[in-house]
Amino acid sequence: MPSRSDLRELYDAGAKLTPAHHQPQDWPYEVPHTLYEAYIWPLHDVGGHAAPPAVFEEKEEEEWEARVYVTCECLGWRGIWNSEERRRRADNDVGLSLYYGLPYYGRWIWAAARMLVDKNHISVLELQEKIAEIRGRHAKG
């Protein structure tokens, strides 16, 4: 497992590979180890990292989780996204903090909201207004 400073070095090297910052390169026959590691562990990938301590327990699915699942499936049925895009957005593109900080279906709904905004199906303002409306309904009971 890389140290924190090693991870920073890998992330800095990997950041140069993102499409927004990509620079055409004349690929040498030998790739420096840091660049190789950056390819192996891209910024969004948490696979292979040590998991934090967690208590695993059987539990019934909560109502909000079922609703998130159905909402995301409906988005797929309507052709707005597919399961691979949902998986990539919810499991890979969230980064370490959100990946470990949100529950499983919390990442799904976060990914759905972000995707709807990214693809211009709704605006950020519309999303904020809807969140405020739902919070208001929830506060009333």
Produce a short descriptive summary.
The chain has two domains: 4-40, no CATH class; 63-140, Nitrile hydratase, beta subunit (Cyclin A, domain 1, Orthogonal Bundle), CATH 1.10.472. The protein is 60% helix and 0% strand. It contains seven helices and no strands.
Overall number of structural domains? 2
CATH 4th-level superfamily of the largest domain: Nitrile hydratase, beta subunit
The share of residues in helices is 55-70%
CATH architecture of the largest domain: Orthogonal Bundle
What proportion strand? under 5%
Report how far the terminal alpha carbons are from each other: 47 Å
Name of the CATH class of the largest domain: Mainly Alpha
**In one word, what is the shape?**
extended
CATH topology of the largest domain: Cyclin A, domain 1
The beta-strand count equals 0
Radius of gyration: 19 Å
Description:
This protein is mainly alpha-helical and 141 residues long. It has two domains: 4-40, no CATH class; 63-140, Nitrile hydratase, beta subunit (Cyclin A, domain 1, Orthogonal Bundle). It is built from seven helices and no strands. The termini are far apart.
List keywords for this structure.
141 residues; mainly alpha; 7 helices
